[in-house]
Amino acid sequence: MKQDLLTFKDWSGEQLNELLALAIKIKSKPADYDTLLKGKSVVALFEKPSLRTRVSFDIGIHKLGGHMVYLDSQAGKLAGREDAKDTAANLACWADAIIARVYSHETLQQFSQASKVPVINALCDKYHPCQAAADYLTLRETYGSLNNLTLAYVGDGNNVTHSLLIVGAILGVNVISITPEGYEVDQALFDVACQLAKKSGATITQSHDISASKGANVLYTDTWISMGDDTPLAKIKQVFDPYKVDENLLQLSGAKYVMHCQPAHRDLEISGALIDSDKSLLMQQAENRMHAQNAILASLMA
């Protein structure tokens, strides 16, 4: 029976830890996995453009011996062209898996129902599971273990935050979501994370107060301006400036490292000096997108 990855909320801690362990093996001994997807093709349909997601999947699939077919946001635009379920059913006739970076989680659900091959969520409005897998892989490498770690997410509550909360809750990582009023995470998904945390023993909290970051090991932020958002920058800054991840917040929190899923706006949501410092895990996160995704592909396809 085929397995999809739309969100990690139905995965167990054992499954996620096995996934991270596999990613570490693939990263350390790539030659052992260079024929894993031999003879297999993966379609990557992107309604939303991307740098890291597209390149990391394309090169990663090649390293596993497979072939990726990229459908860009124009050639592969779904709205008004044909039903999502028909698109997925057709792609599944030829491909061995479908990667989709879409606007709506509903599109992925339709893909999942119509496709006979695995569907992987490369980003939607609710979740970004591949990013979260790379992030927790990075933390596992950096600290050796995820036990007793605390990650403070600071900024706009969004799809990245949702996946960080869910995966952290399953893995036993304490996650604090700190956002301005009106920019909180989806409450239903926050509640899901809280329920998942009961099993792992993690603490999941949310706050509007920047001082809630005290005691965190890592500060994590994301862009304040989502792709396609036409809100004036002056208005965005007025709301989010107090939530900027900079040297002052690093000192206040006591955190050792900073993270950002990128693209990053230097000296807006995060200090440019921090990005370039030894406190930054940004490039390790970016590299680990490929290794985490290769582990996902291996788990779902091999």
TrEMBL record:
Enzyme class: transferase
InterPro entries referenced in this protein's UniProt entry, alphabetically: Asp/Orn_carbamoyltranf_P-bd, Asp/Orn_carbamoylTrfase, Asp/Orn_carbamoylTrfase_sf, Asp_carbamoyltransf_Asp/Orn-bd, Orn/put_carbamltrans
Domain named Aspartate/ornithine carbamoyltransferase Asp/Orn-binding: residues: 148-299
SUPFAM superfamilies (alphabetical): Aspartate/ornithine carbamoyltransferase (SSF53671)
Presence of the UniProt keyword Transferase in the record: yes
NCBIfam families cross-referenced by the UniProt entry: orni_carb_tr (TIGR00658), PRK00779.1 (NF001986), PRK14805.1 (NF011380)
The protein, known as: Ornithine carbamoyltransferase
Source species: Aliiglaciecola litoralis
